[in-house]
Amino acid sequence: MSHPNYRDTAILCAFLVASSLACSAQAEPCHDNGGVRLEAHEPNRMGITVDNDDDDWFVDFKLSVHHPILYETLTEGSPSRWLPYFAFTGRFGYYIPRPSTPVVSKSFNPKLFIRYFWNTDACNRYDPKTEYIDFELGHLSNGQSIETLQSYNAHAAALGNSEYADDYISRGWDYWGISGKNLIEQIELRYSLKSYVNGYIQSTIEENFSWEPAREISKFNQVSGVHLAAKYRYYDSYYVGVNLDTGSNHPFRNNTWEANWGAAKLFGIPFVAYYRTGYNSDLARYYNKVTSYGFALEFDTFKQTR
Q: Into how many domains does the chain fold?
């Protein structure tokens, strides 16, 4: 069980106080026009993914949303360039080919962040040309429960397959980070830098238990912590993108590349196809080098037309 870390409690309080002060810096009214404030944080997806280290394909779900924190209370509708948010991203795999067709949780990522808008203010945050930087405090885990060899062996026996049991090994980290978005003509650039720590939620990092087999990659920051992405949009409705993820410990040593192509409406359906090679195809086995490919419906936002 995790216990509160008083250093992190103080930092969290400072985070929220800074949000309040930053967001109340302006007094000019902002007319939100009833815009929906629950928005997509990352693109929401539902599709099929195949990993080459697994004989079973799965239905791949990702839900990702964010919402301003106490929007009226903190800003009184003012057009500040600062705005605090709460976000949640979750990913789940529905393994139809497996016995009992289980749904396996792959990642849970709640976080608080303060967003600073470079080229506009909070009133115009829906504009797709908005550029920003986020200052983040988050938690990343897979929501699983295996922490001991006895529990692992029991799962393997019950499932009849030790590889299936691997999906239920617990992983978890807290992190501090920054991320952002910038635009150069039709090219959208995104970046993220994270430092994984023992924190307020995850008092002890879970990334390599003593009973697990020895391996070259035993820390998550060997494969994660730095994210770079570029997306080129053309003909208004199509895009091609490339992502690079690498470790904050020895960057560019253990790299993960993803190429994707998407269409806002392919035969009336929002569609994306992707090919990925590298690490962290799922948190339980983040250390495996895997090639993945798939396709999905991709939904960018819940926002209504204002």
A: 1
| Contact assessment for residue 176 and residue 8, using Cβ atoms and an 8 Å cutoff | no
pTM, to two decimals: 0.86
Tell which phi-psi region holds residue 74, choosing left (phi > 0), alpha (psi between -120 and 50) or beta: alpha
Please list, in sequence order, all residues whose beta carbon lies within 8 angstroms of the beta carbon of residue 226, skipping any fewer than 6 positions away. Answer: 192, 193, 194, 244, 245, 246, 247, 248, 251
Question: What whole-number distance in Å separates Cα of residue 205 and Cα of residue 172?
Answer: 6
Distances (CA, A) of 240 to 34, 84, 186, 237, 251: 33, 31, 11, 11, 25
SS3 268: coil
**Domain limits at 187?**
6-299
> 305 in a domain, yes or no?
no
In a domain, 306, yes or no: no
Tokens representing 124 are 């115009």
195 within 8 A of 248, measured Cβ to Cβ: yes
pLDDT tens string 72-109: 766 565 667 888 999 999 999 999 999 889 999 999 99
CATH of the domain at 161: 2.40.230.10
